[in-house]
Amino acid sequence: MAKSTVERYRVRRSKPPSPNWRTFLATHAKDLVSLDFFTVATVRFEILYVLVVLAHDRRRVRHFNITAHPTAAWTAQQVVEAFPWETAPRYLLRDRDDVYGAAFRRRVAALGIEEVLSAPRSPWQSPYVERMIGSIRRECLDNVVVLHERHLRRLLTAYFEHYHRWRCHQGLAMDCPKPRPIQSAEQGSVLEVAESGGLYRHYERWAA
Question: Which of 23, 45, 179, 198 could cysteine-pair with 19, CB 3.0–4.6 Å?
Answer without folding.
Answer: 23
